[in-house]
Automatic annotation (TrEMBL):
Gene source species: Brachybacterium huguangmaarense
Database matches in PROSITE patterns: HTH_MERR_2 (PS50937)
Top-rank taxon: Bacteria
SUPFAM superfamilies found in the cross-reference section: Putative DNA-binding domain
Keywords: DNA-binding
Protein name: MerR family transcriptional regulator
InterPro entries, sorted: DNA-bd_dom_put_sf, MerR-type_HTH_dom, MerR_fam
Record lineage: Bacteria, Bacillati, Actinomycetota, Actinomycetes, Micrococcales
Gene3D superfamilies xref list: 1.10.1660.10
Record-annotated HTH merR-type domain positions: 38-90
């Protein structure tokens, strides 16, 4: 059983978990995991939970192991679902070292670990003071009025602090925020037609598409920036 699943109520051999229990068990490692994502992975035949006579899904220990493998392969290795499915058919969940893919490029999201920080905790982890957070909020680099911050907010503050150390204060970074907002709008416009309110599998597919588009756009941006910085 993967470590994350075993930490929090992994099903014993022969036990069955509801979809809500699976989401709760994996929330710490995969905070964005949703019903629609599970339905989508089931529709794509990546997982196949049992159904009760009344139609409720029930997940075994093997189902959870397989699910965790699929989610980690997407998040950490950037494998597309086709590659994951082929790997599972050939190797199961135990051996991921032999599969290579153009999608296995390293990316920033592969390094993010789930966190839940209050304001003082965010300052402590990012090595900044509250005035710096206020400055980020002033220029809409950081959301205002939230009780807890996640890994994305921590990365924003750490990156902004590193730039500030070299003289680039938040007021100089507004163009980056605007660019990110425009890219997000572009991604949503592409992904939205793939989502249907009454089809949870389609919603999960749209979420995956948006994530993949974001990673590809980020990789393109980084490559273009490196090219522009060549002497």
């Amino acid at each position: 059983m993967p470590a994350s699943a075993s930490r929090k109520g992994a099903p014993a051999s022969g036990a069955r978990l509801s979809i809500g229990q699976v989401l709760e068990m994996l929330q710490e490692e995969f905070p964005d995991l949703s019903h629609s994502k599970l339905h989508y992975l089931e529709a794509e035949e990546l997982i196949s939970p049992e159904r009760t006579p009344s139609g409720y899904r029930k997940y075994t220990r093997d189902d959870v192991d397989r699910l965790v493998f699929v989610l980690r392969a997407q998040r950490d290795r950037f494998w597309p679902l086709k590659v994951i499915k082929e790997h599972l058919q050939e190797h199961g969940v135990d051996d991921g070292a032999g599969v290579t893919s153009i999608a296995s490029r390293p990316g920033p999201s592969a390094q993010l670990q789930p966190v839940r920080l209050d304001r003082s905790g965010l300052c402590r982890e990012a090595h900044v003071d509250d005035d710096f957070l206020v400055e980020l909020e002033e220029f809409q680099m950081l959301p205002e009025g939230i009780l807890f911050y996640g890994s994305a907010e921590l990365e924003i503050v750490r990156s902004a602090r590193a730039l500030a150390d070299e003289g680039l204060r938040p007021r100089h970074l507004v163009m980056l925020r605007t660019s990110a907002q425009r890219e997000a709008h572009m991604i949503r416009s592409v992904a939205r037609p793939h989502s249907r309110p009454t089809d949870s599998a389609a919603r999960g597919g749209a979420e995956d598409l948006a994530r993949d588009l974001g990673e590809s756009m980020n990789a393109l941006h980084n490559a273009l920036l490196r090219t522009s910085l060549r002497p």
